[in-house]
Amino acid sequence: MGTLRNAWHSIVEGLEAENVRHLFGMPGNPKLLYDALYDSELITSVHAREQSSGAFMALAYARAAGCTGVCFGSTGPGFTNMLSAVLEAQAAATPLIVISASVSVAHEGMPAFQETDQLSMARPITKWAYRIPAPERTPWALRRAFQIARSGCPGPVYLEIPVDLSLKPTDIPPYERSPDVAPPAPDPVALTQAAHLLTHSKRPLLIAGGGAVSSQAFEELRAFAEEQGIPVLSSASGRGIIDENHPLALGLTGLYFTRIGREHYFKADLLLILGSRNEQFETGAWSYQPPHAKIIQVDIDATAINRNWQADIGITADVGSTLSTLRQLLPPLDPKSPRLVRSKTIQAAKASYLNEVHNECMQEYNHLKTKRVLAEYQEVFGTGSVLVNENGAQDLWSYYSPYMRVPVRGCVPPGAQTCMGAGVSGALGVKLARPEEQVVCVCGDGAFQMYMRELATAAQYSLGICYLVLNNRALGWIRYHQLHNKERYIDTSFEVQPDFAAVAEASGCLGIRVAHESEIRAAVEAAYVAVQSGQPAVLDCYIDDEQPPGFHDFHREVLGYKHA
Fold it and tell me: Which of 335, 409, 485, 493 has its CA 20 to 30 A from that of 157?
């Protein structure tokens, strides 16, 4: 039998057993969860400035650490503030547990202070939403939450408990850790068919989605690509599955194509799509299907197979185990095979392209360009930083490899919802998950203004994050659309804007305004020194309004903008 304690003590016990080391959010009534945290020597509570920030930090932490993130918000608006992050976790298929209280059972419907139907709001955007009906059920509910969040296609789970029930001391059973669940194994018949297609393919291409990252299939994918001479592209959420310095890594798909990736994508005679839902931006609104390519689709979620493009072979299984078995079925190619000869040609072309892009970025333009900011950052910091992506027009440059290159496990992207500001706040969770690595958030001025309140949080926890703020004084992507509407502009330019460098300094960070390309190297070097000492750095870069070539291609080909 257990000892007398309340539900929050049981939750803390469970979080410790599940190896949770950081809990994100902010307290309302401190008796709800936070009082119990005083007794924990294992869990650090990270005090965000607002509840949505805490949830985004937990989401990014989960992706960066390869674990389940946990956040807390108080009743009513504390809960509703977290919903955008829950929606993003669903879109990004990231395991996230959201905990809150609900109003006391004794006062429901009267109405009680901050009463709202939180459960009904959570259900459409979570894998499971549950109200704990009695404190004795707390261990069962939390264990179930962890199991559901990380099993199959990962995603968010919501748990709540009424305030009066949660504070009632009672005999609660001890917590038992949730079981590890083995992912589904690939079907042998489908694997044999896939191996046959791959054997006879002359121009295969790997497309890695977020499911490949969730599977932790880093080594299996790299080895498979090298053995079979297959170039690799990724979706935005699959980025980091392979080091983008690797000769076979050709960047991203769809909206994010660069020239070399696009060229080989449309020549492919076979796409091996690994852990991707084939979403709108990565497929050119489903119009970017190579005309002569067969498709093998592998996904842990059976409902993702044939959801959009029809696969010739669909395999419902974990990406890592599928690649491992395919490697056994497909011995490495003969060094003289045409596919390995093609592979060497691609590697040489990429090396030439890298040099071309570097020269493009580093030439003198007499005004500051985003691609120059990214190039200077990588000259000083190297290409090993963990990139936290944002949502906007200028920061989209960082999605275009090789303008920005990331290592294995080196990218934390948003999901398909791309909530602005998620990366600005999420960068704190990434740095907590990977404290020994450089973390950079590339963001526009619109997104930065939404969540720059968390700069003080980053300084409070000595999180040496570098923020590259690409400041075009506007909501650039929306203004780009307006350009194609008879050049009428409304509510997209910021006529009054904070001094971001001054805000950074006032928040305990390094803040530098960069107005010309001649100033960027010294600013990046100063940022490097600052973040090494644990001080966040903000470079407010006054850039022009140039968009990447792939951005124009997408708007011309998919959205019909004739002059894009």
Answer: 409
Cα four-point dihedral sign 277, 281, 282, 287: positive
Q: pLDDT tens across 483-542, in order?
A: 877 767 788 888 899 999 999 999 999 999 999 999 999 999 999 999 999 999 999 999
* 384 occurs within a structural domain: yes
Q: How many other C-beta atoms are found inside a 10 Å radius of the C-beta of residue 302?
A: 14
Q: Which amino acid is located at 217 in the chain? A: A
> DSSP assignment, residue 474?
B
Residues 6+ apart with CB under 8 A from 343: 229, 230, 231, 248
- Cβ atoms within 10 Å of 307's Cβ, excluding its own: 14
Which residue range is the domain that position 282 belongs to? 188-346
Same domain, 162 and 202: no
| Span 261-277, pLDDT tens digits | 999 999 999 999 999 99
Same domain, 408 and 338: no
Q: What is the residue-wise DSSP string for 361-374?
A: HHS--SS--HHHHH
Count of Cβ atoms closer than 10 Å to residue 197 Cβ: 17
Q: CA angle 319-316-182, nearest 5°? A: 65
Same domain, 210 and 339: yes
Q: Are residues 279 and 140 in the same domain?
A: no
